[in-house]
Write a structure and sequence with these properties.
Order of helices and strands: HEHEHEHEHEHEHEHHH
Strand order of the largest sheet: 3-2-1-4-5-6-7
Structural class: alpha/beta
Helix content: 55-70%
Number of strands: 7
Shape: globular
Strand content: 5-15%
Mean pLDDT: 87
Distance between the termini: 49 Å
Length: about 325
């Protein structure tokens, strides 16, 4: 009888502990997302630099920052798209723009040109957004060249752009760096191991960079979104997969509040759910994630992913 009472009390205590942690998490997320005031990125400098800005999240950053009357340096590999975007932003918001055509497959080759173009500007914000994915598959099924190119674009570009912009920020003791990583850097990510690793690099780099330079007035934000309805994902916007505009509007409200953040409240809950199940039963997490990849391929109507998953399940 004593043993039953003891285990009953222990179970009740564990139930209380779980409920307590969930409630605290929910209340904290709501407070951060809706009640705390972010820093004003426009006070760090008159210019913002955005990589990978002609589509998706990068393009939404361009419009959101233009609304705040920040001048923009737009960096991408398509001159035609850059010119079209710059013209629209200048016409709609009466701001200044500068376009730089650069291929981030080799940031070292593009560095002299980019540095020259940025030299005279008062840069307050850097958005490292450029990124690529090579799809779903077992690691050994990837082409090595594709993996290497992905590392160049996703990881090395972040370090290279930061190295170019950070010195002037440190000199004036103010600046903001936003690095776009992925939820893949924070949770188990099956069939996208190389992609997840490039994003984990960004997250770790952001965390340590902030620790190194916070005393110099530098703010670093690392965004780790789940699915956002962009060309990379495809599909229509939903509550859990918002449009790029909705996502960026939310993410900018988190600058200076959290170093590593999903930037979007529903994505916070997604990470919490995965981590919670992983802590309780890692095998269950693995089972769920394997099936989730299958659901993802069909939900977002990606034929390449669909065909791949038909072979595996």
């Amino acid at each position: 009888m004593t043993e039953i009472t003891f285990f009953a009390k222990l179970f009740a205590f564990l139930q209380f502990l779980v409920i307590y942690k969930v409630v605290i998490f929910v209340l904290t997320r709501i407070y951060v997302h809706f009640f705390k005031e972010p820093i004003d990125v426009t006070k760090a400098g008159s210019w913002a630099v955005i990589t990978g800005c002609t589509d998706g999240i990068g393009k939404s950053f361009a419009f959101e920052l233009a609304k705040k009357q920040m001048n923009l340096v737009l960096i991408s590999r398509s001159q035609e798209k850059l010119e079209e975007l710059a013209k629209e932003l200048e016409s709609r918001y009466q701001i200044k723009t500068k376009i730089i055509v650069a291929d981030f497959l080799n940031i070292k080759d593009s560095q002299p040109q980019i540095e020259q173009q940025l030299a005279s500007l008062d840069i307050g914000l850097l958005v490292n957004n450029v990124g690529v994915s090579i799809g779903i598959g077992y690691f050994l099924e990837y082409n090595w060249k594709d993996i290497n190119d992905m590392i160049e674009v996703n990881s090395k570009s972040v370090v290279g752009m930061t190295a170019m912009v950070l010195p002037k920020m440190v000199a004036k003791r103010k600046g903001v760096i936003i690095n776009v990583s992925s939820i893949a850097s924070r949770v188990p990510t099956l069939y996208m191991s190389a992609y997840a690793a490039t994003k984990a690099f960004i997250t770790k780099f952001s965390e340590d960079l902030m620790l190194e330079y916070e005393d110099y007035g530098i703010t670093v934000q690392c965004l780790t979104p789940a699915f956002v309805a962009t060309k990379m994902i495809s599909g229509s916007p939903t509550l859990t997969s918002p449009s790029a505009d909705t996502y960026v509007h939310s993410a900018l409200k988190q600058v200076g509040l959290q170093l590593v953040t999903t930037g979007y409240l529903p994505h916070d809950f997604e990470i919490y759910f995965v981590r919670f199940t992983d802590a309780i039963c890692p095998n269950l997490t693995s089972w769920i994630l394997k099936r989730f990849v299958f659901i993802f391929a069909y939900t977002y109507n990606n034929e390449e992913h669909k065909n791949y998953m038909k072979l595996k399940f």
